[in-house]
Specification:
alpha+beta; Jelly Rolls; 9 helices; 18% helix; hydrolase; BetaGal_gal-bd; Beta-galactosidase
C-alpha cells in the first residue's frame, strides 16, 4: 500500500517528490477520450492529474445523482491510475472553472433564506447530502486504500470570496465525515489577504497558490505566509494558468510560448506545479460560465481550449512540444514518451434536409406550464437553455408600449410571431413600442439563459435567476395568463419537421449525413446567427456570429454511420448547407 505525506516536502512512500500535475476536467471531455488526454500528460513526463468535480452535473435535480458515462469520475480516476498517474481531486461544492454557476446547482436559487458558500446550516445540509453520495466514489480511490488520489481540496479560492472560517472548518469536517483520509489543502491567490481569508492553517491544511507568472515572487509570498504561521511546508502552485478563457465577441486570449515555458520552468525549479489547463476541452450543452463586470455579465464561449498544451480536441500544440523540450533539457532524468495524436475529418457540403418553426411545434414541447404571472426558469425546475413565454393581448391603442420587468439574460419580443425587439441585460426594461393592427394578438418572448456567473459576489445576487422574474407590462400594468414552454434540449424527440416553417422566426434546421468512417471534426456555423447545435441528440454547445470562433467541436464518439445534425437558430438566418472542417475557425484576430 502506498503512502503520501506533507511535511517540509511532499513524500511518496517515504521519498521526497515534486508534484508535476496537469488539469483535465473529465466532464469537459468525452469519456472515450480520457485515456488519450491522460496518456499525453504522462508522455510529457508529468506524474499527476488534477480535476474539479461539478456538483451541478452530478446532482442536476435535488436528490437525483448521476455518475454515469461522461460523469463517471470513478472510471476517470482509475484510467489515470492505469497509466501510472497520481490524482488530485477538488470536490468543493464551488469550483469556479468558468463553469455554469461555478458548479453550484441552479436549484439552490429556489431555496429561501439560504446563503451560498457560508456556514449557513441550510447550505451545509445540501453539501452534506451530496458528499454522502460523492465520497462513495472518491473514498475507495484514495492512496491509503490502494487508489491514486493523493490530495483533496477544501473549498476553492475562498479567500477571493469570504472569510467565514466556520464554513471552511465545516467543509473539512464533512469531507472527513464521508471518508477523506488523504491530506487536504486550500488554494488561493498568492497574496496575504486572500491567503489569510481562504486558508485553514490552524487545521493543518496546506495552503497553495494560484498564479500564472512571477513564480519566484509568488512563492516568496506563499513561503512568508507559511513561516508567519510557523510552518515549513512545500511550495505548490495549484493553478498555473497556461492560458485563459474566452468570451463572446472578443479576440482569443493568447500567450507567447517562449514566455510561458520560461515561467513554467521557474515554478518547477522552485516547487510543485499544476498546469491549469493541461487539456481544457469543451463547455458542452449550456454549461459555459459567465464573467461579471460591473452591471454586465459576460458569458464565455463554448470552447474551453484555454490556450492549453493540448488543444480543444486533445492534440498536442506547440506549447506541448516546447514544454516537453524544456523538461528534457532541464530535468533529463524524466521519462518521456511520444504523444498520441487523433485524426480529424472535413466534409465540404452537407445539404439542408428539413426545417420547422418553433412556433409550429409548441404543442409538442414536453414541458408546458400555465400560470397567472411569468415564472422564472428556476421555478420551472429548468437548469439552462431557453424559455418561451406566450400570452394574449387585446388591442387598447394603435401604438402600445410594452416593457419586460426584471429579466435575464437575453430576450426576443414577438408580436404575432414577428420579431419586434431584442434586448440583452441592461436593455431589458426599456420601452418596446409596437403598432397594433389586430384586435387579438399573440405576445411571445423567447428568453435565453446565457450562463450564470462563476466567480465573485454575483453568486449571491438575484441576477442569477433566469427568465422573466417579475413580469411584462403593457401600458402601465402587468399582463396575466402566461404559457411557458421549456427548451432545455434534454431531448429532441418533440421536433416535428412535418410542421410549417416561417421565415424570420426561431427555427430548427435538420441536416443528415452518412459517414464511411468517423473522426473528430468541427462544424462551421458561418452564415448562421445564434443558437445551439445538437448532433445525434447531444447538445454540443452554443454558437454566435459575434465570434471569436464560428466552429463547434464534435468528438468522433458521438458520430455514427448515419447522423442527424439539428441547429436551433434564434435569429431567423440560416444556410442551405453546412460543412465540417478539420480545425477551429477564428474570425476575430
Amino acid at each position: 500500500m502506498s503512502t503520501f505525506e506533507i511535511k517540509e516536502e511532499f513524500y511518496l512512500n517515504g521519498e521526497a517528490m515534486k508534484i508535476w500535475s496537469g488539469a483535465i476536467h473529465y466532464f469537459r471531455i468525452h469519456e472515450n477520450d480520457w485515456h488519450h488526454s491522460l496518456y499525453n500528460l504522462k508522455a510529457l513526463g508529468f506524474n499527476t492529474v488534477e480535476t474539479y468535480v461539478p456538483w451541478n452535473m452530478h446532482e442536476k435535480q435535488p436528490g437525483e445523482y448521476d455518475f454515469s458515462e461522461n460523469l463517471d469520475v470513478t472510471k476517470f480516476i482509475k484510467t489515470a491510475q492505469e497509466l501510472g498517474l497520481w490524482v488530485i481531486v477538488r470536490p468543493s461544492p464551488y469550483i469556479c472553472a468558468e463553469w455554469e454557476f461555478g458548479g453550484l446547482p441552479y436549484w439552490l436559487l429556489n431555496e429561501s433564506d439560504i446563503r451560498l458558500r457560508s456556514s449557513d446550516p441550510k447550505f451545509l445540509g445540501f453539501v452534506d447530502r451530496y458528499y454522502e453520495q460523492l465520497f462513495k466514489k472518491l473514498a475507495p480511490l484514495q492512496i491509503d486504500q490502494g487508489g491514486p488520489i493523493i490530495m483533496m481540496q477544501v473549498e476553492n479560492e475562498y479567500g477571493s470570496f469570504g472569510e467565514d472560517k466556520d464554513y471552511l472548518v465545516e467543509m473539512k469536517r464533512l469531507m472527513v465525515k464521508h471518508g477523506a483520509t488523504v491530506p487536504l489543502f486550500t488554494s488561493d491567490g498568492a497574496w496575504k489577504a486572500t491567503l489569510e481569508a481562504g486558508s485553514l492553517v490552524e487545521e493543518n491544511l496546506l495552503p497553495t497558490g494560484n498564479f500564472g507568472s512571477k513564480g519566484k515572487e509568488n512563492f516568496a509570498n506563499l513561503k512568508a505566509f507559511h513561516e508567519q504561521h510557523h510552518k515549513k511546508w512545500p511550495l505548490m502552485c495549484m493553478e498555473f494558468w497556461a492560458g485563459w478563457f474566452n468570451r463572446w465577441g472578443e479576440p482569443i486570449v493568447t500567450r507567447e510560448t517562449d514566455e510561458l515555458v520560461e515561467a513554467i520552468y521557474e515554478v518547477m525549479s522552485l516547487g510543485s506545479i499544476n498546469l491549469y489547463m493541461f487539456h481544457g476541452g469543451t463547455n458542452f450543452g449550456f454549461m459555459n460560465g459567465c464573467s461579471a463586470r460591473g452591471t454586465k455579465d459576460l458569458p464565455q464561449i463554448t470552447s474551453y481550449d484555454y490556450g492549453a498544451p493540448l488543444d480543444e480536441q486533445g492534440n498536442p500544440t506547440g506549447k506541448y512540444y516546447a514544454i516537453q523540450q524544456m523538461i528534457a533539457e532541464k530535468f533529463p532524468w524524466t521519462k518521456q514518451m511520444e504523444p498520441i495524436i487523433k485524426d480529424t475529418m472535413a466534409i465540404e457540403t452537407i445539404p439542408l434536409t428539413d426545417k420547422v418553426s418553433l412556433f409550429s411545434i409548441l404543442d409538442e414541447v414536453p414541458t408546458h406550464v400555465t400560470a397567472k404571472y411569468p415564472l422564472s426558469m428556476e421555478k420551472l425546475n429548468q437548469h439552462s437553455g431557453y424559455l418561451l413565454y406566450q400570452t394574449s393581448y387585446r388591442k387598447d391603442t394603435d401604438n402600445e408600449r410594452f416593457r419586460l420587468i426584471d429579466g435575464r439574460d437575453r430576450a426576443q419580443f414577438y408580436l404575432n410571431q414577428e420579431l419586434i425587439a431584442t434586448q440583452y441585460q441592461d436593455e431589458i426594461g426599456e420601452d418596446i413600442y409596437v403598432d397594433i393592427t389586430k384586435e387579438i394578438n399573440e405576445i411571445s418572448i423567447l428568453m435565453e439563459n446565457m450562463g450564470r456567473v462563476n466567480y465573485g459576489h454575483k453568486l449571491l445576487t438575484d441576477t442569477q435567476r433566469k427568465g422573466l422574474r417579475q413580469g411584462v407590462m403593457s401600458d402601465i400594468h402587468f399582463m396575466l395568463e402566461w404559457h411557458h414552454y421549456v427548451l432545455d434540449f434534454e431531448t429532441t424527440d418533440f421536433i416535428d419537421f412535418s410542421r410549417q416553417w416561417q421565415a424570420g422566426t426561431p427555427s430548427f434546421y435538420q441536416f443528415n449525413v452518412a459517414l464511411d468512417q468517423v473522426e473528430d471534426t468541427y462544424i462551421d456555423m458561418t452564415g448562421f446567427g445564434k443558437g445551439c447545435v445538437l448532433v445525434n441528440g447531444i447538445n454540443i454547445g452554443r454558437y454566435w456570429e459575434v465570434g471569436p470562433l464560428t466552429t463547434l467541436y464534435i468528438p468522433k464518439h458521438i458520430l455514427k454511420e448515419t447522423n442527424e445534425i439539428i441547429v436551433f437558430e434564434t435569429e431567423g438566418v440560416y444556410q442551405e448547407s453546412i460543412r465540417l472542417v478539420d480545425q477551429p475557425i477564428n474570425i476575430i484576430n
